């Protein structure tokens, strides 16, 4: 099956689902209160996109996501590299880390609102707690799985501790971290949105919460679609970033000759 | 022919290796009564070994006889349980800056290009960027990798990666070069090529070399001396053979030399018993 046929089938599936849905709402088979008509959702999205204040919401969610992601990864890498290098520290802190990681992050949201207010930072904090552990475990694993031969080689070539960190441990951990880049950014978005949903005055999560408060299912669905487009866009950006940063890794299909 | 070759050192010898006459060369590496142990397991016991400056010593022994631990002790990666090791009359305490180590496995940093890998040793010695780049370019050209400077290790073949490793290990002009079965992972043709390449580089600027191998042909073809280790545990040196084959040598051709075959027979007679012993213990 060639690419054009596959694409045609994909479009066909979409048309059947949306068309059936639309017809169902028009004939009254589907209750528009719970499942608003696709055309109405489209109109809602179009009106948001045309409105400049919508971009303020997107901007705020994006800021929260990016801040949460950067702070979370930064702390995660630092802690992961440290505990990856120091086995005894890792053993001592292990139960605490496991305990903290076991907390369902959503229940922290009210605490963060209490501590940091309804503004940006309570959402960033929630995103950080989600991103941190993913990066942390990956960084620790990356440092622990540094090839011992490569390590010995660098030491014999004269690397001191700082050289080893910079030229061996960090790049080794970086490939692990970057390969989990997308997972953790997904969590950063989740953190920001949940934070907004639970209490805020702006952002995409706020838009959805507001629509829900008005029993406006169209708004909720429109918000969901906007969110998934938002995540897809971030994903595309990350894909490019990852390719740029890990040029040294063989890409899939490019085999290492013997 | 051999005398002419020994004197035909193209570069002035380094201050650390004044060795116009190899017979009078000073001792570079000295291993005295060294025992290597891991807990209660004694890998190597009471090893005495002296390597002269500019001498190429091959250590052969059955698998699992602790050959690598001796090398790692000389490199300062491992601490002997007893005995002492000196390099150029200075005791080895931890990793020294005067060692070049050629590993069996891929030891290149996969996230650095060929040129970045080559200049690593100079970078750790804080040489200015321009100088080290220039030297690294020259070394890569020397090992036949001109035009491959900006390839990552995964974009190079096994033989090419080994060449980069050679350049990386030799660029710092180490006093002692240690090799741990450096070519055993390569296919036979690439191996011959790399062995000749290694001999060529070493001939240009003779350093003390300790090479570990399980391949007796390689040991004789490359070395000035072949040292036989007994089967482990508690492995020790049984015998040492001088290899008086003329240099420069061609690794593929020298194997047809009648004198090479005599040497091979003699050394194999000594090694065979140990190999058999090591297999018996395994079963």
TrEMBL record, chain A:
The chain crosses the membrane at residues 12-35, 66-85, 97-118, 124-143, 187-208, 220-241. It comes from the Bacteria. The keyword ATP-binding does not apply. One of its GO terms (biological process) is transmembrane transport. It is found in: Cell membrane. InterPro entries: MetI-like, MetI-like_sf. It is a multi-pass membrane protein. Residues 58-242 form the ABC transmembrane type-1 domain. This is ABC transporter permease. It comes from Skermanella stibiiresistens SB22. The lineage of its organism: Bacteria, Pseudomonadati, Pseudomonadota, Alphaproteobacteria, Rhodospirillales.
UniProtKB/TrEMBL annotation, chain B:
Residues 29-256 form the ABC transporter domain. Keywords: ATP-binding, Glycosyltransferase, Nucleotide-binding, Transferase, Transport. The keyword Translocase does not apply. Residues 1-24 are annotated as: Disordered. GO terms for molecular function: ATP binding; ATP hydrolysis activity; glycosyltransferase activity. Pfam families: ABC_tran. Belongs to the ABC transporter superfamily. This is Mannosyltransferase. It comes from Skermanella stibiiresistens SB22.
């Amino acid at each position: 099956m060639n690419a054009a046929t596959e694409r045609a089938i994909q479009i066909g599936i979409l048309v059947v689902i949306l068309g059936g849905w639309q017809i169902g709402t028009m004939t009254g088979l589907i209750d528009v209160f719970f499942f608003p008509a696709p055309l109405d959702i489209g109109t809602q999205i179009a009106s948001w996109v045309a409105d400049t204040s919508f971009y303020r919401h997107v901007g705020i969610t994006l800021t929260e996501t990016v801040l949460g992601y950067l702070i979370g990864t930064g702390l995660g890498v630092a802690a992961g590299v440290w505990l990856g290098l120091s086995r005894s520290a890792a053993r001592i802190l292990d139960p605490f880390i496991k305990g903290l990681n076991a907390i369902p992050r959503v229940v922290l949201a009210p605490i963060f609102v209490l501590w940091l207010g309804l503004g940006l930072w309570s959402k960033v904090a929630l995103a950080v707690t989600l991103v941190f552990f993913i990066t942390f475990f990956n960084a620790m694993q990356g440092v622990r799985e540094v090839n011992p031969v490569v390590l010995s080689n660098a030491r014999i070539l004269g690397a001191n501790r700082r050289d080893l960190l910079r030229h061996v441990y960090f790049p080794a951990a970086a490939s692990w971290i970057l390969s989990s880049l997308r997972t953790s950014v997904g969590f950063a978005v989740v953190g920001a949105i949940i934070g907004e949903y639970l209490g805020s005055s702006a952002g995409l999560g706020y838009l959805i919460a507001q629509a829900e408060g008005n029993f406006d299912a169209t708004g909720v669905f429109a918000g969901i679609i906007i969110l998934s487009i938002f995540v897809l866009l971030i994903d595309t950006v990350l894909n490019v970033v990852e390719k740029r940063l890990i040029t040294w890794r063989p890409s899939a299909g490019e085999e290492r000759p013997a | 022919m051999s005398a002419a070759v020994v004197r035909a050192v193209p570069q002035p010898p380094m201050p650390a290796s004044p060795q116009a006459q190899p017979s009078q060369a000073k001792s570079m590496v000295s291993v005295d009564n060294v025992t290597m142990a891991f807990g209660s397991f004694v890998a190597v016991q009471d090893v005495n070994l002296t390597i002269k400056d500019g001498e190429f010593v091959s250590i052969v022994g059955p698998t699992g006889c602790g050959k690598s631990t001796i090398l790692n002790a000389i490199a300062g990666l491992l601490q002997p349980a007893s005995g002492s090791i000196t390099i150029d009359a200075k005791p080895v305490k931890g990793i020294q800056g005067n060692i070049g180590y050629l590993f069996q496995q891929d030891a290149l940093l996969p996230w650095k290009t060929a040129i970045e890998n080559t200049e690593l040793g100079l970078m750790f010695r804080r040489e200015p960027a321009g100088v080290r780049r220039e030297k690294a370019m020259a070394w890569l050209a020397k090992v036949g990798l001109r035009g491959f400077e900006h390839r990552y290790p995964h974009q190079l073949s096994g033989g090419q990666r080994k060449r980069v490793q050679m350049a990386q290990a030799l660029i710092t002009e180490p006093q002692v070069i240690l090799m741990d079965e450096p070519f055993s992972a390569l296919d036979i043709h690439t191996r011959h090529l790399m062995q000749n390449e290694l001999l060529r580089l070493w001939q240009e600027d003779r350093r003390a070399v300790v090479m570990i191998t399980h391949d007796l042909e390689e040991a004789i073809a490359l070395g000035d001396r072949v040292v036989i280790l007994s089967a482990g545990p508690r492995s020790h040196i049984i015998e040492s053979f001088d290899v008086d084959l003329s240099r420069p040598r061609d690794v593929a051709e020298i194997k047809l030399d009648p004198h090479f075959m005599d040497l091979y027979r003699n050394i194999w007679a000594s090694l065979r018993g140990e190999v058999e012993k090591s297999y018996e213990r395994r079963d």
